[in-house]
Write a structure and sequence with these properties.
The structure is a homodimer of 340-residue chains. Chain A is 34% helix and 22% strand. In chain A, strands 7-9-6-10-8-11-12 form a seven-stranded mixed sheet. In chain A, helix 4 links the parallel strand 3 and strand 4. In chain A, helix 3 packs parallel to helix 4, helix 5 crosses helix 6 and helix 5 packs across helix 9.
């Protein structure tokens, strides 16, 4: 997660219980360093420039027995670019720091950098610098610098009661892919993007939702709210609600979940909605958009609109869930995966 | 070191033997990712913006039994800002990523961030974001973003035969301070800046040479060459010579070495010139300036000119050393400290 996340501390007591240790730490850090700029997926350091940084640590964020170094490199870059997508920006420059243990060979470095370079090229980002050093544990730290989109900048703030909550793609698939890898199905895949498996592909080869974000900002300008669901849909909803001091009503039945995710969840004996809410690493966009703007845009059809509605913003102080219209149990943030 | 360093690969064969493993790796990375922007202490990503990133790993770059977390935080920030000084830029924003092992307490985080924040405040830099995550080993990764100075931007390129090689401050003191710490003299210091000890202060509490760089760029504009001697004076001379395909004549007797450094070197049984050339971590500036510009500036006296001359740029293909006028043995890069 970016240090910038979750920092607009609101007093709505209903959300206090939904704060993770990570989020509390960020609030502490703001106090220690006086970081008034800390506040979103990216830091907006001028009217034009976005910056975000992400660290990935072996054994915490990835395992080399489950993913190749090229895949790890791609994912590290994609995750970083996703933070720029979360502000609807255009990523431009990537800075790559690698701390590598003894025995990390020239070929290992090559694979890692080729994975990073492959993602950077696909999204037309230049690798402009970085650092390399020794360590006991493989660690990547990437910083991306981007431009604010000419149509506007979407932050976590900007939602209002009555807005429609919208999301791209589908949720829970990355968690299903991880389950497949942990269950030893890794050997079945025959290509770096998951070998045609949607779930493995989402886990191994995530795609930053840049073009989707640009379509949104083309419709909304800077009005509305946006973030990426890197830590799960539930976390994204909580962050958006906190940042705007609003409540939400979310229909679990409308959360897009791929058929393959449901199938694997059944194999695992898990409710696929839990994976969608808490699994994380889907890197889909979650936003809030004016209901009238949404109504018009929706008419254009799914080809011109990559988002689906999953709920509405309320003037309440809690996130209320329904499942096919009936009240559902509240969010349980203890189910979230935390890297700290 | 920054990935940006040392990347202007020249064919001057005399320098090939002076290449470190680190430098060769950087050239490989450029090939893998197509990083044409990789090229100096900072990446110049627009006509106005400088970016640099540095990683510090426990056991590689620092030891917690020798320095407090507040001192480690200060040094991490200062080292990062020094890369902006190396381009004569103005640092503006700092992004701080901390990977912390289990048992790293809230107070530990606080000390670390207070050290970073203290340095940032002193040099009027805003902490604008970052990341925190778990790891086995304490690891910091800092990214600084700065503005090009209104008078110009100094890179490693821009030196020409006949230029005067100039440097700030003094060399070898940081290595002497490290020797004191390793010899168990750490307990003697009573404050975070080395307790009045010049050498401990240089090691523990380095100062980025920002105002010195701004004085230089005020005299030269974008003409000339500049870098910081983070990996030692010898490394800085080699990088400047390679980046410009020039030779150098350096008088070892004119390298500024503090009396305390000499005293500690005598205790350690080491030639203080070796510490000055290869010890590293002095974070002084080393540059090349037009001889006429230098001649005029020098007349203003040391109060208005923080640099001293240590040699001249030649049209040769090697770095020739003299010691009080007599030929001295060539540089021996195997004496350099390398983090990779």
């Amino acid at each position: 997660m970016a240090l910038g996340q979750d920092s607009t501390m609101k007093t709505a007591s209903s959300f206090a219980e939904l704060l993770t240790g990570e989020q509390k730490m960020i609030d502490s850090i703001k106090g220690w360093v006086g970081g008034s700029l800390i506040g979103d997926d990216c830091a907006l350091i001028s009217s034009q420039t976005l910056v975000s940084t992400d660290a990935l640590v072996e054994g915490v964020h990835f395992r080399r027995d489950l993913m190749s170094l090229e895949e790890i490199g791609w994912k590290a870059a994609a995750v970083n670019l996703s933070d720029i997508a979360a502000m609807a920006g255009r990523p431009r420059y990537l800075f790559v720091t690698v701390c590598a243990p003894a025995g990390f060979s020239q070929n290992d470095f090559r694979s890692l950098y080729e994975g990073i370079g492959s993602c950077a090229r696909q999204f037309r980002v230049s690798i402009a610098g970085g650092d390399i050093t020794a360590s006991d544990q493989l660690m990547l730290s990437l910083t991306v610098i981007g431009d604010v989109h000419e149509n506007g900048c979407l932050t976590r703030s900007g939602a209002k009661p009555g807005d429609v909550i919208i999301a791209t793609g589908d949720f829970g698939a990355s968690r299903a892919g991880l389950w497949q890898l942990l269950a030893g199905e890794a050997s079945k895949r025959n290509s770096k993007d998951g070998g045609g498996s949607h779930t493995l592909g989402k886990h191994i080869h995530p795609m930053p939702r840049l073009s989707e974000a640009w379509m949104l900002v083309g419709k909304t300008g800077s009005a509305g709210a946006l973030m990426d669901a890197s830590d799960g849909l539930a976390d994204a909803l909580v962050q958006l609600a906190r940042a705007n001091s609003v409540g939400m009503m979310v229909e679990l039945g409308s959360i897009p979940i791929d058929a393959q995710t449901k199938k694997i969840a059944a194999q695992a004996g898990v409710d696929p909605v839990d994976w969608a809410l808490y699994g994380g690493e889907d890197y889909e966009l979650v936003g809030c958009i004016d209901a009238n703007v949404w109504g018009e845009w929706r008419k254009e059809g799914s080809k011109n609109n990559p988002f689906v509605p999953i709920g509405i913003v309320t003037d309440g102080v809690s996130i209320d869930l329904t499942r096919y219209g009936s009240p559902a149990p509240p969010l349980d943030m203890s189910k979230c995966f935390q890297h700290l």
